[in-house]
Specification:
By secondary structure, this protein is α/β, with parallel strands linked by helices. The chain is built from 13 helices and 9 strands. α4 runs parallel beside α5. β2, α2 and β3 form a beta-alpha-beta unit. It folds into 2 domains: 172 residues, NAD(P)-binding Rossmann-like Domain (Rossmann fold, 3-Layer(aba) Sandwich), CATH 3.40.50.720; 127 residues, 6-phosphogluconate dehydrogenase C-terminal like domain (6-phosphogluconate dehydrogenase C-terminal fold, Orthogonal Bundle). The protein is globular, with a radius of gyration of 21 Å. The strands form 2 sheets. Strands 3-2-1-4-5-6 form a 6-stranded parallel beta sheet. Bound molecules: 1,4-dihydronicotinamide adenine dinucleotide and 3-(4-hydroxy-phenyl)pyruvic acid.
């Protein structure tokens, strides 16, 4: 148990990410009170059954009253609606943060509504799974994972340090980035892989000459990896695509060009070109593994870590 960092934390949205934060806060004793609010009554009831917080309220505005830290964990397209709901009830000096997968759009949606004296600090934990909802969260999700902050130019350093201490208490490694740069980096390392996964699984489903039953029966582990990503939450990923449009389209254009190069090399039997690319990409995988960031089957790996405690 740590000393509480905050008297009262408000969690707006209690799905995979919000509920994982709640579980860590409870396990580590990081807050005196944890007030939970979410859009649907059914999810709020489930959060209460799981005892994720200390108070459960249907209104986001009521939830943030007197909160020292407010964490918004909703699909990025809902950011503005939440900012509007909470703006008038925030306590002076409160820290408001989010966990959204895109940053420029979340800032554009939320910052204009934040009152003077409230510290709005956008954040993004690079940790998750393909699952969603309050049952999907677990203790330790953020351990040894990066959490990237994209502070605004006038961000208060003391508030930023406090927020960093919170995420470090959850075990995260901390980085800071410009929001536009964040959105480009994430477009290639996270958003494109999901889009490619949705696409390849869709293509397999549409084939006339190979049945769905054969795809399921004979799916090799490479295809299975894609199906895991392609099982990710449709609302969340629709919002990511719509709210990081420019960076995703830029990366997709590069990707399509490179795919055409590969297609041509296969057509013309240019084995040396294929061999050169496959050798280069193998080295990237090896450096990821060497850096200790091999995160195969992240959810199962994490659960087994927890089970050993
Ligand atoms: N799933 C993942 O692996 C990761 C997700 N993220 C980001 O975290 C955020 C939350 O994602 P998850 O927890 O995975 O989603 P989730 O679908 O598990 O949970 C979303 C929660 O938001 C609530 N919600 C939706 N619209 C709302 C509204 N207008 N007002 C209040 N509550 C609302 C839902 O009731 C639910 O409790 C998203 O912005 C996502 O981009 C960040 C890192 C990883
Ligand atoms: O499940 C996976 O492999 C993920 O990549 C999880 C994830 C999804 C979205 C994020 O913004 C960060 C992490």
């Amino acid at each position: 148990m740590s000393t509480p960092l905050f008297d009262r934390i408000a969690l707006i949205g209690i799905g995979l990410i919000g509920s994982s934060i709640a579980r860590d806060v409870k396990e580590l004793g990081l807050a005196g009170e944890v007030v939970i609010s979410t859009r649907s009554a059914e999810t709020l009831k489930r959060a209460e059954e799981l005892a994720l917080g200390t108070h459960y309220v249907s209104s986001a505005a009521d939830a943030v009253k007197d909160a020292d830290l407010v964490i918004v964990s909703v699909p990025v397209g809902a950011s503005e609606a939440v900012a509007r709901q909470i703006a008038g009830s925030l306590k002076a000096g409160a820290i408001v943060t989010d966990v959204g997968s895109t940053k420029a759009s979340v800032i554009a949606q939320m910052a204009p509504h934040m009152p003077e004296g409230v510290h709005f600090i956008p954040g993004h934990p690079l940790a998750g799974t393909e699952k969603s909802g309050p049952d999907a969260g677990f203790v330790g999700l953020f351990r040894d994972r990066w959490c990237i902050f994209t502070p605004l130019p006038d961000t208060d350093q003391a508030a930023l340090d406090t927020l960093k201490s919170f995420w470090m208490a959850l075990g995260s490694r901390i980085d800071e980035m410009d929001p536009q740069h964040h959105d480009k980096v994430l477009a290639i390392v996270s958003h494109l892989p999901h889009i490619i996964a949705y696409n390849i699984v869709g293509t397999a489903d549409d084939l006339e000459t190979v049945t769905d039953a054969e795809v399921i029966k004979y799916s090799a582990s490479g295809f299975r990896d894609f199906t895991r990503l392609a099982a990710s939450d449709p609302t969340m990923w629709r919002d990511v695509c719509l709210h990081n449009k420019d960076a995703i389209l830029e990366m997709l254009a590069r990707f399509s060009e490179d795919l055409a190069y590969l297609q041509r090399a296969i057509r013309w039997g240019e084995g040396d070109k294929l061999f050169e690319l496959f050798t280069r990409t193998r080295a990237i995988r090896r450096s990821i593994v060497q850096a200790g960031q091999d995160v195969d089957a992240p959810d199962f790996g994490r659960h087994s870590l927890d089970a050993k405690k």
